[in-house]
Every structure is written in structure tokens, then in C-alpha cells.
Amino acid sequence: MDYLFRHRSIVRMTVEVQPPTPKPEQPPQTQPDPVEEIRLKFVAVVECSHFLVSTNNNFRTTTLTRRHESEKVPLVVHQIPIQILDHGPQSLHQFLSSKFPAYQNDTVFNIHTITDKIIATWAEIKQQQEQNLSVFVGKVLPLTVTLRLWNVVVTRHETPMEDRFMIPTSDFAVEEMLKRVKVEQQFDDDDQIRSCVICLEDISVNMEKEENGEVILLLLQMPCLHVFHEECIKKWLKSSHYCPICRFQMPTDSS
């Protein structure tokens, strides 16, 4: 029986910082007001990619099945004095780290990346102001910080280990691959363990029977050379296709 396992993880984040969009009728200001504060509005957008991983005859294939994007989700708003940005990225990084303490060492939610993007955007706005190209009017500059999170959902088919062991051996393999043997053919050393690992009884117990005047050996040897009582190993192979000692794999009806 196949089971579906779903694994979800955020694998990457990109940052976009947008200054306010000017109105078409708003002309550039010859003497723009000095910015005193910056209003950082954090929003998140999640782009989700769904992959299906399937295995057939030991070949694994990965298929992109669906991709979708969420609406912008407001996260938090922070208003900070412009001096924090003017003092360089270290001051802004310390501020953001204090506001997002859980993400200081996160490899995906990278505060350094967010800091660099905000500083770069502020540098562009300052340059526009110096060239009298800025259309922003006001002492509080609103910046929208969009965190675009790339989420990967992997769905895979997997057969649990216990189910794989519970697949029975084919009847043909039981009849053709098991060999009748004598105890003395298998144990030359008196110190060797002579017990059936299935029933835990001595391997010489019930080792043969007489039928129609013929002695029939009741010990069966698997291709891996491990020996068991006939009744024990045949019962075992009705619910498994592995040797109970070494996990040698016997053929199944589906193999």
C-alpha cells in the first residue's frame, strides 16, 4: 500500500523595497521637504510550487504540478528616525534584529538582505532629492518592504518498510528455490548454533519424516544458505519475501 507524504519548506526569500508612487499631476519639487522619518511597511507574498515525486521500477521522477501566488499579506509597520539609515547599515540591522529577534540567525529570512535593500533604496531617493528629481513631499517617507517567500511543497509516494517486508514470496520461488538438506551437511563445527531462528527450537528437531517407505528431509535451505524447519520457513514466506536472518530477497508475484 502506497502512502502520501507531504513536506513543506520555505527555501528562499527575495526582498523588494518600493518608494511611494508619485501621482501623474505631481511635479518635481525644487526644494523638497527634508525627510525626518521613514515608515517601513512589511508585507509578505508567498509563491508556492508543488512537486510530485514518484518511483516506478526504481526510477524516480519529479514533476511540477502546480504553482500559485498569494495576495500581499500585511505583517508589521515600523516608523524610524532617518538618522538610523544615515548612520549606515549596521544601525538599521541592529534595529531590525531587535524587532525580529527570532530571525537573527535564520538562513532564509535574512535580515542582512532586508537591511541592504532598504539602505540602497534610501540612497537612490537621496540622490534624486539632490538632483531635484524627487516627487515626494512630506517629512515621513513611506517604504513598502515586500518579502517574497518561495515555498516548496513536495508530495511523494512511499511504501513503508513494514509493508515491503509483508509482501509474500511467490509460490513458484518457494517450490523451486528452497533446497532440502540434512543437518550434518550444514554444521561441521560443534560450536555453531543449531536452532531455527523462526521457532527457536533445535534445528535437528523434526528434521525428517518417513512417507511411503521414503525418508523425507524436513530442513529447507534458502539460496542465501540459511537453513530452517520446512514448516517454519514456508509459513514465514507466506507473509514475507526476505530471509529472516540476512534479508536476502526472494521473488514475489509482482517482481
From TrEMBL:
Keyword line: Metal-binding, Zinc, Zinc-finger
Any Gene Ontology biological process: protein ubiquitination
SMART domains associated with the record: RING, RINGv
PROSITE patterns for this protein: ZF_RING_2
Statement: the UniProt record of this protein carries the keyword Repeat: no
Signal peptide location: none
Pfam families registered for this protein in UniProt: zf-RING_2 (PF13639)
Name by which UniProt lists this protein: RING-type E3 ubiquitin transferase
Native source organism of the sequence: Momordica charantia
